[in-house]
Amino acid sequence: MTVIGTRMPRKEDPRLLRGRGRFGDDFSAAGQVWARVVRSPIAHGRLRRVDLTQARRADGVIAAVAAGDVPAGLPIPVRLAVRDIDLSGYLQPVLA
Amino acid sequence: MHRIRLRVNGREHELAVEARRTLADMLRHDLGYTGTHLGCEHGICGACTVLVDGCPVRACLMFGVQADGTEVSTVEGLSTGDERSDLQQAFSDHHALQCGFCTPGFLMLAEAYLAERTSADGLTEAEVRELVASNLCRCTGYQGIVETVLATARSRRAGGP
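Output (C-alpha cells, whole complex):
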C-alpha cells in the first residue's frame, strides 16, 4: 500500500481559504512587545555618535539598543564562501 | 480620533480610529479580521484586497475613516463555520493556493469580478489572466487561480451556487 501516485488532499486549505491562517502578524501573545529598527535618514553620511538617552526615557519604551549593548564582535555571518576570498572585511556591525 | 460606523461582513461596528489608520490595520488589529493580509503596504501586491460597497480596494491604501458608513466584505465573510463557498472549494480543487498568504486577496478580487462578470458572455482565459495580474502570488504560478476563476464563472453561469 503506497500513496505514491495518488492525489493527497491538503489539510491546510480549509483554514487558509477562510483567512484563518496564523501568519506572523495575525496573532497576539500575552506580554508581547513591539520593536522598531531605526535607520539613518541620511543615505551617505558619517555616524558620529548614537545617544539613546531620550529614547530610553520616552513613554512606553522598554529598551533601546545600540552597538554598545550587543556582545563585542558579534558579526552578521556571511554564509556563502566565495572562492577563498576573505569577506570578513566586508562584514557590517549588527547595530550602529 | 474619529468615531466611525461600518458593517463588516454584515456585522455592525462602531469604533474610534486615528485619521491615519489604514483600513487594513483597522480591520486586522482594531476589529480582529486578520484574514486580510499585508504584503507590501503600498498597493502593489493585492494581499490586502477587500470589498468596500462591493468594489475591490487596496485596504492598505485606504484610511479606516474612509470606510465610515460602508459595507466592507473580507475573506471571513465568504462562508460561515465549516462551510466553504463554491469559489473557496474551487480554489482547493484547482490547487490555487499553497502558502495561502495571497489567497484572501485573490478570493475577494475574484468574488467582485464574478459578481460583475458572470452574467456576461464570452469570459475568456485572457481576460482572467488580465484580472489576476492585479495580485501577486509567489507560490502557485497563477495557473490554478486562473482555472479556478474560469471554472467558478462557468458553474455559476450554468446556474450553480
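Helices of chain B lie at 23-30, 86-93, 103-117, 125-132, 143-157.
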